[in-house]
Amino acid sequence: QVQLVESGGGSVQAGGSLRLSCTASGYTFSTYRMGWFRQAPGKEREGVAVINSAGTTRYADSVKGRFTISQDNANNILYLQMDNLKPEDTAMYYCAADRWRPLYIDLYGGGFGNWGQGTQVTVSS
Fold first, then answer.
1. Is the confidence at residue 77, as pLDDT, over 90?
2. According to the model, what pLDDT value does residue 89 have?
C-alpha cells in the first residue's frame, strides 16, 4: 500500500525559504515518478514540479529558478526546496506518486494515482 506523508510546511516572510519533505512507503520509490502540487483557496490544483524515474525534472514557470525538486532514493524521501518565497506561493502543498508513467514529465496531476495529505505553506508580505 502506497503511503505518502508530507512535512516541512509553515509560515515565512516573503523572500524566505522552506524545504518540504515527502516520506514514501509501500513501493519501490525509484521506479515511480514523483511530483509536488499545490492548491490555494478558491483556485485549481497546480503542478509545481515533477521528477521522473530517470531523474529528469520539470517546473511550473511560476517557480522556475526558485524551487528545486530532488529525491533521496536510499531513504524514500522526496524534497522540494523553496527559496525566495512569494505571497502567491501560499497554498496547501501535496506530493504525489505515479506508478504507470514513470518517465513522463508533465505537470498534469490527473496522471498521479497516489497522494499525501498535504502540508500548508503560508508566505506573508
1. yes
2. 98
